[in-house]
Amino acid sequence: MHDVLIAGGGPVGLFLAGELALSGCSVMVLERDQEPGSPLTALPLGLRGLTAGSAEAFYRRGLLEAVVRASRADEKQVGADPDAVDAPAPRGVSHFAGMGLDAADIDTSALPFRLPGPAMEGFMTSLDAVSAVLSRWVAGLGVEIVRGAPVTAVTQDEGVVVAAAGGQEYRGRWLVGCDGGRSVVRELAGFDFVGTEPLFTGYVARVSFADPQQLRLGFTLTPNGMYLRTPFDGHVGMMDFDGGAFDRSTPLTREHLQAVLRRISGTDVELTDVHLATSFTDRAMQASTYRNGRVLLAGDAAHIHSPLGGQGLNLGIGDAVNLGWKLAATVHGHAPVGLLDTYTGERHPVGASVLDWSRAQVATMQPGPNAPALQRLIHDLMRTSDGTTHVYRQTSGLFHRYDLGSEHPLVGRTVPDFRFDDGTRLGDLMRQGHGVALDFSTDTALQVTAKGWEGRIRYAGGRVRKDLGFRALLVRPDGVVAWADEDAPDRDAFAQAVTRWFGHPESASA
Q: What is the third-level CATH fold of 426-509?
């Protein structure tokens, strides 16, 4: 029997498997597909954007450089001036409803607690590239992956979950469904899945054009919908506001795709061939809770929405990073009471916010007699400094704040990448998935206290190049600040914060 079974071997399931294995859990991944990769996950249809927040998650596990290489991304995008003390201005910002934004309009004074580091920017990648890096990582950690094993039944009692998959039964203490938007685990385990029905059918295809010059590059909003043409040869996307009426079981023919593209673009563009195509909708649904007994959900199994803004993969990676250390602590028996329930408590509001962000973009793009006026208004607002900064904060993955019950402005946020005078960065200290106690003072009280939690938190003391006015911080394994102090570190307050998030010290638990 394994500690954790994971249904789904995509990026979210693999990242979660790695987080759990880092913490000493035995993990088995049950993957539906017989072979890794597919034409839909390779470029260009598998094209995805990693936000700066997701890049930071990979960086903290020592995987960022490998993902950049696998993505053939510009390494300058994730580089950092080794002598820099202040964070550079962002170089890129996402779009809103297909409206491009200028990073020069971002108000950097409204972006607190930033320090330079390797993961300052997002970049483009593919599902194949991310999965390949994560597959190598988890293999090195001893994770078992069973392919050709779609889950077909789930039962659970107070101590065990049994998953039937590929004609076999697998037993685990916990099961996590990372099996996508049509999650079988979610259905079998009885999760409620609620939200809004679609307004459009979307298409992504790799085609051959007789006359590609008729279509502009980039996002183009028209009176009949939106189309996107990328620099990848023959790569095109479309949004057809048909109420999601297209039957996804119907073959995507050249004639159908051409008719939709002509109607949306207002051109007589000709498709000579369709090499690969798929469809989707903007159906926005979310599980009402991410845990039902010993079964949990992460990624698209927990929430689905339109791909506008490229938030889906990033939202799932955030789920995995948040859940992994909490589930591992529960498996090992030293989790404080209620720790696992904070997974839903923290991640459900983030998912709901992303769904609303997606809905707002769809509403802005929906054709109608009043649409041009609304789109001009939104366009003007988005091009202001406040508007651009708001979009960057919403989409970069760096500025979300969990409500951890503290009014301190840094608590609940992702920790800045502090750099010690010897060149060590905080990200270097987090590769094993431990929490970190940062002590910039000359007092050794926190170091003495932290020894009670060896193996769960790592103590790091000394001078840093820029301390942002702090003297001590407690950082969770997911990179979230759990406690901060600007004065001489309070040993009792520190111990209380560690106990709240990491349970009782070793001496007490023994």
A: Glutaredoxin (3.40.30)
